[in-house]
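Dear colleagues,

I hope this message finds you well. In preparation for our joint manuscript, I am sending the Adenosylmethionine-8-amino-7-oxononanoate aminotransferase (Marinobacterium zhoushanense) sequence together with its predicted structure, so that both groups work from identical material. I would be grateful if you could confirm receipt.
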Amino acid sequence: MPLTSEQLAFDQQHIWHPYSSMINPPPMVPVESASGVRIRLSDGRELIDGMASWWSVIHGYNHPSLNAAAHAQIDRVAHVMFGGLTHEPAIELSRKLVQMTPAGLDRVFLADSGSVAVEVAMKMAIQYWHARGKPGKHKLVALQNGYHGDTFGAMSVCDPVTGMHELFSGVLAQQVHIPRPATRFGQPLIDGDCDALEQTLREHGDEIAALIVEPIVQGAGGMYFYSPEWLKQARILCDRYEVLLIADEIATGFGRSGKLFACEHAGISPDILCLGKALTGGYMTLSATLTTAHIGETISAGGAGCFMHGPTFMGNPLACAVANASLTLLQEQDWQAEVSRIETRLTASLSPAASLSGVADVRVLGAIGVIELHEAVSLASVQPLFVEQGIWVRPFGKLVYVMPPYVMSNADLDTLCSGIIQVLNALEG
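The corresponding structure tokens are as follows:
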């Protein structure tokens, strides 16, 4: 049934949506259902979803394999505490993750969301050094323009100035932020591009627990693609100065950048890996933080005798069952060919935007397409224009970007991209 005007009014008056104001909140677009790459609205219109529901719905909506996994599991057990108990969905999911992630990551911590995965990674790094008898190593190095989540620890390693969390800067843990790599993806490493990192690690290594990065692709901090060679050198420098490397692959994991994990572009393994978003194919929230046997055993041998974290819904069987189905689907299908096809199509279909006077840059990597503008757009003004084009795109700041489901057809990709360009043309008047 379509949402009533009373329901929509209640939503507007009482429900806080992401990054929204309760003073004159923008109207919400009511959804009735979704299937494949289309979101069906209450009024019968359909939108091609260019966002994959914030990058998570890689197989499309209402997928029969994921539906079947959810139905089968909910009849067994939807949730049971993970403290003292275990179950097949968590065991098999952890087995899959150990097998498919970069080498050496064979200890798995399952949690609730991407932000919590980052919190867990930060706590792992700090507790590791504490167990090593070096409690002074408790700070993290992060890149400017980075984004790692909205909880307090995660906010502290986001960009402190241009990020979304500047107003909390006075109460967050004070971390060390260095310039992001200047070398773009596909370019030879610029001389001196790793100097800031090396100087920081050399001068402050005795208080730094870890370097945290979004490998290759900085997401919400600017949709910026940087050199794999920089990441390769960062791995070397972390080893040299005894600093752990945390890879936040919440956005890039499971094929989005053209590699199964973005770290593979550089041929490196991090000490700690954060995963989320596409882990369940976008069906429900779940995250995983993986680390090495050495780190896991060092923490466990420390004073606490265990790792000090344990969410209520850790290892949720329903989420793990769907994640298992999603990863099986990913492995059985030729995801690389699909992502490569999308990359080729986005490159061709978004390229006309480069001729618009308001456009600063157009870039594509894997199943990620970005149009960077000279000036920020008003989301409240531009969102309805995209809906009129029959597409769902949610820009932020100067960035109009898409991360479509891997199952999107070439025809739908063309419609998505041409709709974006029509809207940008209209904004130029």
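For the figure legend, we might mention the following. The two ends are 38 Å apart (CA to CA). The CA atoms of residues 186 and 227 lie 6 Å apart.

With kind regards,
E.M.
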